[in-house]
Amino acid sequence: MAFCSHCGKEVSEDVSFCPDCGERLKKGFTPEEKQKYIRELEASVKEEKPAEKAKTTKKKWAGGIVVLITAVIIIIAAVAICTPTRLPSLTASEQNYCTTIVDHSSTVGEALTKLGDLMGEPQIGNDEWTLDVATQLVTIQLAYDETLEVEPPSSMAAIHYHYTQAMWHYDRATDLIAEGIDTMNADLINQAGSEMEAGTEYINEATRLLSDFKAAHST
Asked: What is residue 25's DSSP assignment?
């Protein structure tokens, strides 16, 4: 038996998601696996989907996409604010952590921006669009996995906790978006928007804690 890294519940080793909290148990991809995934996806989307079905899906998705894009815009703003200033009073481990988070949040922000643009103009059945969306989803999933590997200094543990929780919700959103596109289910896109909004709340708290930390070390 294995245990969920998010809630600690005992789970079967052959399940992909925790039945209690929904955590993705089988983690994403290494960079090599990411490229393999995209190549396989490229091969799998060659079958054309009817044009009328694509139009109907775009109309049906409208509400869910608006929710998702609104959440993404808020997240991008929060990630930008979260970028810490280099302070001479920080220890080496604190400065290294800040540098890591700056690079990490920049990657996440860029992927979310691209995802928001793509979801704003859905092109169901278009191979290039599908691959572009998949690339951003996998980038965010990889970013979440990387977050779990970061060891923050004890002085910044609370900041990292909230940042990690935010990434957990973004990771959940990627799973919902992927499934929503695959099944053409607008409700799943709505749920993805809710997960994005939940992630935003954690980002906002991480931002507040980081601002307090910076202020305390600027004097």
From this structure: -
